[in-house]
Structures are given as structure tokens and as C-alpha cells.
Amino acid sequence: MEAPLYPDAPPDPSTPRAGQPAFWVGPRHLAGDDGRLYDAVADTLGSLGWTSLTIVRGRHEPDEEQEDRQVLRSTVLHISPDALCWAQWCLADEPFHLGELPIAWQISAREDAGGPLADWSAYFTGGVPGEVVADFLLALDAHHQPIAPLTVPELVLGAVAAHGWFRDIDRPQAAATDPTGASHISLGEVPPLIQDGDPRVLVAEADEAGPAGWQAWAEPVLGAPCLWAASFAAGVPDDLVAAFAASLSSTAPVLRRVLPEATQERLLRAPAT
């Protein structure tokens, strides 16, 4: 018998609520994940030919029936055909938090398939639109050199500016905000535990800023909990972050049945017929 890791949560947090009408909604960055963040991303990975693995860890006592086995945790891992990139569904295990929200997906890349460590990782909490994570993965899968450093902040800021986001007055070359002031993208020091292969991250002193990476988040109500957050290690090439930023700020509507409570009144919606 499985022991759920989060007993108050539904067995599959990515399952949408049945029987609810569907709407085309916008803006995308406030539309949430429709309760389908795992499915939306896993479907994209499957279409790209990534291999899916489920690792289950638990206890099985002698003479214990199989149905009585207690599963302590499980991890769903998707690996690219060349084994240089992988995506881990963290909510099935014990995720750490970003912006006080649990990490849902961790996506990593490395230069050498024989190396055990990632050269960089990107992290997405629940609430990030699945279309946005999928577009990031499509760009990663198509990238010929996902480990090659590419530091061109204008690629990221230009992507959101093209969709009407405003550059920060004080940091026009490093930050931007959507027209409603709810969602942000910024280049700065990465939060703790964000994995990066840059050795400067390991040797930086406590009072010394490490390499800068991109952070994005939505805070619909100032001072209230974030709707979602995303973090990119310093080693993530800026053209990949730009793919994320362009999708996040896209003005194209997305199909939703489950709307975030914090942004329901701020979303434009039309019935999907």
C-alpha cells in the first residue's frame, strides 16, 4: 500500500478538475498551469523522444505482501536521447522551495554524458504555465551547444519588450516587468541551492556575489505569496532564457479549465467552443 507523500493533496496534482468549462485566457503569465503542469511538459518530452523513468524507493519487509509495501518517495525522470539533458518532476519527491513555492520541474544539461553533474539547471515551480516550460524544452532540445556560454541579456529583455513589457527604470539592461506590474524577469544573484557548473559559485565568499542568473516570478498582489517562480543558473545560455521569456510574455491566449484564484479577476477569457 502506498503512503502518499502529501496526504492532503490529490494523488495526481497535475490532474485538472473534471467537468469544468474550458476558456481561452490571457495574459499567459497570469494564467497558471491549469493543474496540468506535469502532463503538459511530459507530453512535450515524449514527442521529443526523451525517455521516461520512474524511480521508486520504499520499504518491503520480509513476508510482506506486495500491496502492503510502503513507498516513501518516487522520482519521475526524463532523459534526452543523447543523455546530455534531463528533466525531473520534483513534486513526486521532496522539492526545495523557490519564492516559498515548491519546485515542480528541474531541467538540467551537461557537456559530457560520462559526467555525473549538471553544468547548469533551471527550476520551475507550480503555477508556471506548461506552455512556457514546454517552449523552453523545445529550444533546449533544438540547441546544438546548450552548454556553450552565451551572455547577451538583450536577447531576454528584447523578447519581453517585443510583447509590451517595460524595462526597469533603474536597471534597463537587466530587468523588465509586465504592463500590470505583476510579473517580473531580472538578472541578478541566484538563490541558494541553484546548481551551476561554474566553479566561481563554489568558491564565492559568503559576502561576495556569485555569477548572475535570470529569475522570473509573478506577484499579483504586492506582499502576497507569489503565483509562480522560475530560476536559471548562471550557466544557462541567454538564448534559452529568451525562449522562456518570449513564451511567458506571449500575447497568444492559452486554454484553461482551472484558473488561479489570485488572478481570476485579472484574466481576459472567452469560452472555448
Summarize the model shown.
The protein is α+β, with helices and mostly antiparallel strands and 273 residues long. It is built from five helices and 14 strands.
How would you characterize this protein structure?
Helices cover 18% and strands 28% of the residues. The protein is of the alpha+beta class and 273 residues long. The chain has helices at 37-47, 130-142, 153-161, 199-203, 238-248; strands spanning 23-26, 51-59, 70-79, 85-89, 97-98, 101-109, 120-125, 166-167, 175-177, 183-189, 212-218, 228-232, 254-256, 268-271. Helix 1 (37-47) packs parallel to helix 2 (130-142), helix 2 packs antiparallel against helix 5 (238-248) and helix 3 packs parallel to helix 5. The strands form two sheets. Strands 2, 3, 4, 5, 6, 7, 8, 9, 10, 11 and 12 form an eleven-stranded antiparallel β-sheet that branches. The chain has a three-stranded antiparallel β-sheet with strand order 13-1-14, with no helix packed on it.
Characteristic key phrases:
single chain; disordered N terminus; 5 helices; globular; 273 residues; alpha+beta; 11-stranded antiparallel sheet; 28% strand; 3-stranded antiparallel sheet
Q: How confident is the prediction overall: mean pLDDT?
A: 84
How much strand content do the residues show?
A: 25-35%
Low-confidence stretches: 1-16
The profile of the biggest β sheet is: 11 strands, antiparallel
Q: Give the C-alpha Rg.
A: 19 Å
Taken from the alpha-carbon principal axes, the silhouette is globular
DSSP summary: helix tally:
5
> What helical percentage do the residues reach?
10-25%
